[in-house]
Amino acid sequence: MSGYLTRSQTVSIRGALPLSLTLLKDNQQFYDPLGQAQALGVCSASWPLFGLLWPSSIRLAQKIAQRKLCKTERILELGCGLGLASLVAHRQGRNITASDRHPLAQKFLLKNTQANQLPPIPYKYAQWGQPCYAHIATEQGLRPLQSQFDLIMASDVLYERSMAQELAHYVHQHAKPVAEVWVIDPNRGYAGAFTRALEQYGFSMRENRLLSQDRLPNGYGQVEVYNGRFLSYQRV
């Protein structure tokens, strides 16, 4: 027994083949018998969030599916959760690394790559604003992120005021001198602060586009009209 309940769902992505996903049954799941999540700063309230399907992650998957393929381009997904965008990119033959802070994210990612007959996706532990957790992650057998990338992408990661500056600094650390950054943000109100923080590291805004208001499933199994933005930055 795993101690938590899961369910299966087929997800359709515009511009890509459908994917079969294993995800948590609902947002009431919690299982941390050894305190591994707590040791990494993941509280009980946020524990299930990695394993739910979020509208912004669907949008990010659609966006990477439409990008021109370049097999030498190194791509990083931050805060990947179930890694939907990483799975889409991986199946297209892109050089993708998935990352998250949750101790079970890698397990779910591996299960979902296998379910879709794909080889494993490179995975790293990543947590911005909390460098003290890196050695704990290492003790748990996780490999902290160290490399730099051409494109860093993320969805719904600006959910606290302090995260704008912290995330911008982390992106700067792991972006190549010439790099792009994509963020799908459901209008939480911190995009402006993130843009200003990235400017300090030489990034400029390329695009800030309101996304069409499709009806998409949210993390709680409900279908709602999506309200969010695609934010794109570049450093040259």
Automatic annotation (TrEMBL):
One of its GO terms (molecular function) is methyltransferase activity. CDD domains: AdoMet_MTases (cd02440). GO terms for biological process: methylation. The keyword Methyltransferase applies. It comes from the Bacteria. InterPro entries: Methyltransf_16, SAM-dependent_MTases_sf. Keywords: Methyltransferase, Transferase. PANTHER family: HEPATOCELLULAR CARCINOMA-ASSOCIATED ANTIGEN, PROTEIN-LYSINE N-METHYLTRANSFERASE EEF2KMT. This is Methyltransferase domain-containing protein. It comes from Candidatus Paenalcaligenes intestinipullorum. The lineage of its organism: Bacteria, Pseudomonadati, Pseudomonadota, Betaproteobacteria, Burkholderiales.
